[in-house]
Please model this.
Amino acid sequence: MAPSGDGAGAGAGLPASRWPWSSLHTGLLLSVALTSAPMLATPARHAPACAATLIVSLGILASPRDALVMLGSVVALYWVHVLVRTAESRLLARRPGGH
Model:
C-alpha cells in the first residue's frame, strides 16, 4: 500500500486505506467551530485564526521548528501592520485639517 503523504502532516506514515478520514473531518469541523464560537460570541473578529487552526489540525506544522517559523511570521506581520498604521497616522496628522 502506498503511504498517504510525504512523511509530514496528518496521516503521515499510515497506509491510505487505514487513515480514518471521518475522524479527520470531524476533528477539522470541531477545531474550526471551537475557534469561531468565541469570535462570534464576542466583538473579536479574526478570520486568519481559522486558517491557523486548520494548519495545526491538519498537522502541517510537523515540528516545533515549523511552529516557531509560523509564530515568527505572525509577529513580523503584526509589527509591519503597527508600523504602517503609525506612519499613516503621522502623515494624516500633518495634513491641513488633521484628518
Observations:
- Confidence is low (pLDDT under 50) at residues 1-7.
- Residues 64-94 form the longest helix (31 residues).
- Residues 63-99 form one domain.
- Residues 31 and 51 are 11 Å apart (CA to CA).
